[in-house]
Design brief:
Structural class: alpha/beta
CATH superfamily: HUPs
Oligomer: single chain
Order of helices and strands: EHEHHEHEHEH
Mean pLDDT: 88
Strand content: 15-25%
Distance between the termini: 51 Å
Number of domains: 1
Strand order of the largest sheet: 3-2-1-4-5
Number of strands: 5
Helix content: 40-55%
């Protein structure tokens, strides 16, 4: 049984997220998705999420691709990785710290998961920031 773990904010769920999670699922038998806490979103993106962490987790669970959705921990992201002990970590194409740096950090923490970066899905259209900007600029 190969366990894959994916991470994200998933604030406004869109086809790019679905593509990311479908690609991640192809690397194993079980897909565990870690939804970022509200505090971590604010810390990493300098803004509050539109939807709270519970709502975002419910949406991720509802799409039917995910075997288990959990809310991450504030602080060290590696705590939840060590706890879940995945075989593969699936990164979105634009997620930080990036594949090479993540591999280094995992090695330092003695976590032995393979790291895979997923391909973008029409990143010119399906990015949460671009969708939010479009909504903001839409006039009735």
């Amino acid at each position: 049984m190969v366990k894959v773990m994916a991470f994200g904010t998933f604030d406004i769920l869109h086809p790019g997220h679905l593509s990311y999670l479908k690609q991640a699922k192809e690397f194993g038998d079980e897909l565990v998705v870690v939804v970022a806490t509200d505090a971590n979103v604010e810390k990493m993106k300098n803004r509050k999420p539109v939807n709270n962490q519970e709502h975002r987790k419910e949406l991720v669970e509802a799409i039917g691709i995910v075997d288990k959705a959990i809310i991450g921990y504030d602080g060290d992201m590696f705590d939840i990785v060590a706890e879940e002990n995945p075989d593969v970590l699936a990164l979105g194409y634009d997620q930080k710290p990036g594949e090479n740096k993540l591999k280094e950090l995992l090695e330092e923490k003695e976590i032995f998961a393979e790291v895979k970066t997923m391909k973008p899905y029409r990143n010119d259209v399906y990015k949460s920031s671009k969708i939010k900007e479009k909504v903001k600029n839409t006039k009735n």
